[in-house]
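User: I'm putting together notes for a lab meeting next week and I want to include a structural view of one of the chains we've been expressing. I don't have a solved structure, so I'd like a prediction I can at least talk through. The sequence is below, exactly as it appears in our construct file.
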Amino acid sequence: KIIDTWTRIAMEIEENLIKDLEKDRDGFNPLFMMVHSGARGSKNQAAQICGLRGLMSKPQRKVTSVQIIETPIKSSCKEGLSILEYFISTHGARKGLADTALKTADAGYLTRRLVDVAQNVTISMKDCGTIMGQEISALKEGEKIVEPLNERITGRVALVDIIDPVTEKIITKGEKEISNEQALEIEKGGIEKVKVRSTLTCEAPAGLCAKCYGRNLPTGKMVEIGEAVGIIAAQSIGEPGTQLTLRTFHGGGVALRIAEITSRNADISGQISFENLNAVENPDGHLITLNDKGRMIIKSRGSRKTGYNIPIGAVIYPKKKAQVKQGDILFEWDPYSIPIVSPTGGSIKFVDIITGITLQENWVDERSGGKQFIIIEDRVRHHHPKIDIRDSKKKILKTFSMPTGTYLLVKDNEKITPGTLIARIPKEIGKSKDITGGLPRVEELFEAKIVKNPAVVTEIDGV
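Assistant: Thanks for the context. Below is the predicted structure for the 463-residue chain, given as structure tokens.
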């Protein structure tokens, strides 16, 4: 939370700074002109020069995880840094230089491995005649659209006829290429998913067929037989590798974090319905979700509808079948922790939660309310902390296991109502956007590597 607060402040300062620079000299401020035209530097760098340098990333031996130093550098480069601040920021600068040297080799190696694997994938026939395909929708990160639907389907071959839901007119016939105009029409028509032919489902005996591949981007026409698409793909993934590697260099180790979104607003007006929702009502009369499979659907007067995935522990404001207007808040959640919510009322009973062994008390400053209770790991591993919820006859209604690092929000023997927050598990925060998120992540996807926290899958069925 500390990190998030500072991130927000840094973003506010950055926005205000750009506004001030824009007003200065009627928009002819040299710094503003350089950043705004895209000639040199970014808003973030301008903010480092004359706003505040912000949070720095910790120097680490391992490249994969990045932690952020909680104390930000409050001075800007123009004011000059104090000795301690200067010392912290040298970490970043050195990390940038070391990274550059090490990563260039890595990136080249990735390209070579990819080419080696994909070199025999070529276009071998016009049409393999498969009836398989893939559903494509807009690419989202959370709820933010990273790549809209029209960009993803342009130049692909439609698997079945694509029909406008309102006019029932065929936009693109099956087995035909989707043009730029048709792709825009599909998106405007409110179609969220489109079935297209895909290289993953191609049934050509060797290589791929032209229809599953789609348009050849350099020529803008359908791909020709004999095109070495495997090598093109390998080089396309490998090429940004060198840039991924050099990315830290410019920030000088400054941790670039985006403040998370905490609520969702309605994109259209209409009536609300829910799918797969498991929720309880809290004392305020709002629903609190107990699972993360739930979806909220808004249906407007026409046949337009949009859906939102509801995260676990979200507070939902509108009731079922309620009418909402565009821009209304639908639900809010805490993006920094996974909440544990009680589905029933009753009294709390701590099991194996012992102060000093599995429970640590932290004093926080008086203003934020005294103590914090955190579950810690038992060194001997004899204790397994959990919380039971019991009714008046001491019968156990529900049991929750408490993993290490959980913050408790209730006391022993406390009476609770359905929908009460019992505890929250902090999420791993500090996904800094520098190289460490870039290249190692890409390499991980291509390696059959043993993951850190694997899921346990049952090998047999039974009770």
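A couple of points you could mention at the meeting. The first strand starts at residue 123 and ends at 125. The CA atoms of residues 101 and 207 lie 37 Å apart.

User: Perfect, that's what I needed.
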